[in-house]
Design a protein that fits this description.
The protein is α+β, with helices and mostly antiparallel strands. Among the domains are: 39 residues, no CATH class; 116 residues, no CATH class. Helices cover 36% and strands 16% of the residues. The protein contains nine helices and eleven strands. The protein has a three-stranded antiparallel beta sheet with strand order 4-3-5. The protein has a three-stranded antiparallel beta sheet with strand order 6-7-8, with no helix packed on it. Strands 9-10-11 form a three-stranded antiparallel beta sheet. Keywords: Signal.
Length: 296
């Protein structure tokens, strides 16, 4: 090999090596074709041949690693929150719905409601103290009371017994409902109170519509298996108020029952005072009118 050709070959090989270009197969030939230099599958040190990889900008890396949706506007209230509020609203709905109903008939038309026999307001249905869909005929008594006892603004609804009338009934209630301890025949105008001192006595007359009984000789009583104390108080309150209005110390008036059939109810103030049914049947006179007297 000529010296010049050898020199040229070495220079070219060095240039290829320095530039880091991989050489798979290089053929060099002198100008006169005297020799060939072949380099096949030359492997270079990885540290010198590895290409430099450009690093991502810090801002780009942060953006790539950030969770999706970061920085988005908050969404609406969670389903759990909505469900809780919905449950509270639902649970309070029955009471509010009943309270919005007007009158006994409107109240009892809803089976979930009951008309209070003392406050004269529509409430959620309870087991006692109300007129409900099951005993809606009792609205007749509520209506008579509401027609007689006017509402007092900011104090009471129509039908609520006035203080003066309530006071008189409270004074006689023991005599009417339980009787006098010193006298087995005085008062005792309920079936249970009468039979407490007259064991096994049979009534001479009883009315299945009014649920009023008469024991001998002439003791008329409310059947407290059908009437509760509030019913009796309400009926007596009507008779007391009508008697006061008439200016009488003793009188009887036609009063509605919780069963839709009126009876005659007498009240008086002398002595112990009293309130009791007169007879067992529906009177001939109209509602609120005076009727015949009976025996305490």
């Amino acid at each position: 090999m000529r010296p010049f050709a050898l020199f040229t070959t070495l220079v070219i090989a060095a240039c290829v090596f320095v530039q880091g270009a991989p050489v798979s197969e290089v053929g060099l030939q002198t100008t006169d074709g005297a020799f060939e230099l072949e380099a096949a599958s030359h492997q270079f040190d990885a540290r010198t041949t590895k290409a430099k990889v450009a690093k991502k900008p810090a801002s780009a890396a942060a953006a790539a690693s950030a969770p999706k949706g970061a920085g988005a506007k908050p969404v609406g209230k969670t389903t759990a929150d909505s469900s809780t509020k919905s449950a509270k609203k639902t649970s309070s709905t029955p009471a509010k719905k009943c309270a919005a109903l007007q009158g006994c008939a409107g109240c009892t038309a809803n089976s979930a409601c009951g008309f209070s026999k003392t406050t004269f307001k529509c409430e959620s249905k309870k087991h006692t103290g109300q007129i409900t869909a099951e005993n809606k005929q009792g609205c007749a008594l509520m209506n008579q009371m509401q027609g007689l006892f006017q509402a007092v603004n900011g104090k009471s609804a129509a039908g609520v017994i006035p203080a003066a009338v309530a006071s008189e009934f409270n004074h006689i209630s023991g005599h009417v409902l339980k009787g006098e301890a010193s006298n087995p025949d005085a008062g005792r105008h309920t079936k249970s109170a009468w039979l407490a001192t007259h064991k096994n006595q049979t009534p001479t007359t009883q009315n299945a519509k009014t649920h009023i009984l008469q024991f001998p000789p002439l003791k008329t009583v409310w059947d407290d298996g059908f009437y509760d104390d509030t019913d009796i108080k309400n009926m007596c309150a009507i008779s007391i108020a009508l008697r006061k209005k008439a200016g009488s110390a003793r009188a009887s008036f036609v009063v509605q029952t919780p069963f839709g059939t009126p009876i005659c109810v007498e009240t008086f103030t002398q002595g112990t005072g009293s309130c009791f049914p007169v007879g067992t049947d529906k009177p001939k006179q109209g509602l609120g009118q005076q009727c015949g007297q009976g025996q305490d």
